[in-house]
Amino acid sequence: MNTNQLDDWLRQARPQTVLLAMVSVVAMTLLAGHLYVVGPSLARLRALDGGENLDSVEALKSEADQTRAAIAASEATLEGLRGQLYGGPSDQPPEKVESYIVDQLDSLSVRHAVELMSVEPGDAQHVLMFDELLYEVEVKGDFLSLAAWLGEIEDELRPLVVNGFDLRPAERRPWVRMRLRLASYRPRGGVS
Asked: Cis link prior to 174 (omega < 30° from 0)?
């Protein structure tokens, strides 16, 4: 029904009919408000006023405590996942992440008896929707120690990926010199 038809109907209808229609709309609005808003609230209030109100309050309190504990556990899990995804503390700027990665590489080198000769952070580059942070790393040690070191880097500094490497015999045999290009990816513009 368009506005012209409604205007015509209002002019032709008797005032009692229009008044009855308006009263009906108001009555239906009040009934819907009672059924959907006031009624459920009154029912909950009546249930609390009954004998089970103490049990209900204790159950709600217990449920709230469980919810808080679940939220705290989820936040801790989320922070751990962010650490895995962003390769270190997720709330740190790239400069602090570089420091963290260099420290981790150094401690892992000591643990595996591998000589960390150099770590050179490169400039950030844009790759799709990520900032790619490159690290040129040079290490030397025996082959098995280098392999264990590289495996632990993969576990500890995930998602650092090997972007390129060069393996050559070192001056001191049976050592091997390895040059790596490691890449770390973070969402462009930092962590959200």
From this structure: yes
Instruction: Look up the CATH number of domain 89-187.
Output: 3.30.70.60
Adjacent-strand bridge partners of 94: none
The b-or-e profile of 115-128 (16+ CB within 10 A means b, else e) is ebeebebeeeeeee
Kindly report, residue by residue over 34-64, the tens digit of the pLDDT: 888 888 877 777 776 665 556 667 777 888 8
How far, in Å, CA of 170 to CA of 56, rounded?
A: 74
The pTM score is 0.52
CATH 3.30.70.60 maps onto the chain at 89-187
SS (H, E, C) the chain: CCHHHHHHHHHHCCHHHHHHHHHHHHHHHHHHHHHHHHHHHHHHHHHHHCCCHHHHHHHHHHHHHHHHHHHHHHHHHHHHHHHHHHCCCCCCCHHHHHHHHHHHHHHHHHHCCCEEEEEEEEEEEEECCEEEEEEEEEEEEEHHHHHHHHHHHHHHCCCCEEEEEEEEECCCCCEEEEEEEEEEEEECCCCC
Length of the chain: 192
**C-beta separation of 139 from 180 below 8 A:** yes
pLDDT at 51: 54
* Residue 113: alpha-carbon gap to chain centroid: 36
